[in-house]
Amino acid sequence: MTNLNFDKETTALLIIDPYNDFISEGGKLWDRIKTVAVANDCLSHMLQLLTATRTTGMRVFYAMHHRYRPGDCETWKYTAPIQKGAWPRKTFEYGTWGGEFRAEFAPQPGDIVAHEHWCSSGFANTDLDLQLKRHGIERLIVTGLIAHTCVESTVRQAAELGYDVTVAKDATADYAEEFMHAALITNLPNYASAIVTTQEVTDAISGSRSLALSSSASNGIGAGGETAVLPA
């Protein structure tokens, strides 16, 4: 069975593309993922993960897609099909509501927002790997959008770079169930060490926190890192 005992010093939550255009009513892509996202209760699970990791003191990293700006790609010689589809719609356009974080998932002080990725992988042509390594991160808990493109591509490259990856399978969504199946059942088991539910992840996070607090107390250290005063 996969070890889900997360060390908060070496584990981080990685949230991929929580833009309004993806996960808010009225967003340019919301109608395309709504059916799967609602069935999966994706947004609630994403928020559950974020709340649990913040509570335990784990670091939170963001891998955000490049936001469209005029002149970005018009002169490119070659453009990937996924980019050809997104840029005419000006998906995640800079300076617009659709290109903003959905409010519940906005970064807080201490969170790290990596440079925006141009295609699918949160690592490609960004500083994500550098930021993770400089913060001592070895394990990733991954959530976000969408399963068969940015999530899958980021998890694949994370594995190539030596990270241990856990994917919360009900904290992602896609355009259709067959795409979810392709990512979560066919492809990602080759790269992610664990593909589990949000509840399993949060239970493990809570268990790791309880174990850390118990260990600190037994050593005379309080929950905030201060020396605890034990009764005589």
Spatial extent as radius of gyration: 19 Å
User: In CATH, what is the class?
Assistant: Alpha Beta
The name of the CATH topology is Rossmann fold
Total count of domains: 1
Helix/sheet category: alpha/beta
Element string (H = helix, E = strand): EHHHEHEHEHEHEH
Largest beta-sheet details: 6 strands, parallel
Count every helix, treating DSSP H or I runs of 4 or more residues as helices: 8
Percent in strands: 5-15%
Superfamily at the CATH H level?
Isochorismatase-like
Order of strands, widest sheet: 3-2-1-4-5-6
Summarize the structure in words.
The chain has helices at 20-23, 30-40, 42-56, 81-86, 128-134, 147-160, 177-187, 198-218; strands at residues 11-16, 59-63, 112-113, 139-144, 164-172, 194-196. 39% of the residues are buried. The radius of gyration is 19 Å and the shape is globular. The protein is built from eight helices and six strands. The protein has a six-stranded parallel sheet, sandwiched between helices. It has a single domain, classed as Isochorismatase-like (Rossmann fold, 3-Layer(aba) Sandwich). With 232 residues, the chain is of the alpha/beta class. Helix 3 (42-56) packs parallel to helix 8. Helix 6 links the parallel strand 4 and strand 5 (164-172).
